Amino acid sequence: MAKGAIIVGAGPVGLMLAGELRLGGADVVVFEKLPAPSGESRGVGFTRRAAEVFDQRGLLERFGDVEWAQGHFGGVRIDFSKLDDNHFSVRGIPQFRTEEILESWLKELGVEVRRGHEVLGFRETGDGVVVEYRGPDGPGEESAQYLVGCDGARSLVRRLAGIDFPGWEPTRGMYMADVVGANVRQRPIGERVPGGMVMAFNLENGVDRIVIHNEALRPPEDKSGLTFATIADAWQEMTGESLHHAEVRWVSSFTDTTRQAAEYRRGRVFLAGDATHIHMPAGAQGMSVGVQDAANLGWKLAAAINGRAPEGLLDTFQSERHPVGELLMRNTRAQTKLYLSGEEMEPLRAVLQELVQDPAVARHLAGQVSGLDVRYDMGAGSHPQLGLRLRPDIRLKLADGSPATVRDLLKPARGVLLVTSAAADADGLRATAAPWADRVDVTTADWAEGEADRPDAPAALLVRPDGYVAWVQPDDAPLRAALERWFGAA
Description:
alpha+beta; eight-stranded mixed beta sheet; six-stranded mixed beta sheet; 27 strands
């Protein structure tokens, strides 16, 4: 029997998407060519919005005590503590730890991750996709309704689907290494030195990550010949400090190559994460935007697999997430120029440092880095909350007086109609939503003390499974139209 979906790639994005699909009732399997997790950590944290995505599925608490970090835009510090919304990101979480947590979650959900299974190709049929692979027991084929490539920057799925990957060629590069016993001076957001920039920060248990940008450095595409000695030599040349005595865990290099897939969907094939966008690392945005891609696509694809997706729902993955990717490309390219250029950029850095003292400017730049500025087009309606995410930590008081949070409502990955005591025709709203009871939970609750102080606090609202507000009262749009648009026929 054909699967609902096959996901290629067991990184954070592929694992998150698999969980979202399973919560939506879809049969899903993950194919990963590596026989075991690599233990590498290209990402070492995630943005505020990615933290909220994890939180609304009850996953954030599994990371234990996390370090919440201030932010910057291209090395220009932004004081998050002065902003109304919480833009603080999580840092110091190695990517392999994120993958461990997500894979453990998938085991609880009953999702199979097939390691050592390398996808070789696929072909579309009238009602699905047939994937060819090579596994521990030899070659084989697996059928599914849909295929999703979460297989990184060199995505085989993207190439075989014939999807263009236009962008900008590299102009500069960096070395990176994780070392133990270096006793290196910490430089958490980088320090400009003659000829470039160096960065050093603690990951965990005495493991430091060091990053080096030399203005003349152009790392080759093939990293197989890169040695720690080369990186340690470069560090000593730029800082005068020796790292040669340290134990090395991992070395890598990267460039500022910037590309975005022209299409996130072609027929029954989808792309998410680094398969859709690559760029110079900046504030863990790459993995974080990929996790948000997964949250956006998962419930929509599950609805299609289960035969209840309204017309055009799958197309909204492209229309909603491609613009987010475009902004990601723009802001990371801008940050690269600010961050890594030499003395000639100092006047612009000084001007920007003055500008970020303005709360409006600080909110704008912080929102781009944190992911909190994403707003989707929900159609008719003008309420300021419409199209924005609903914070999972907002506190509620249920009808029986017991406390709850938005997180509690979103954890099952279903739609939520929240009706407060201030709602007009509350019984009518509940009756309108009743035919969607298999897809939308109706909750009667009030905002907890302090949560409803804003004059624009909604009296009632419809929230999609990804946490974005699709309908609000007071507003002019009918609830039934929003339910049909996002959740299909009654």
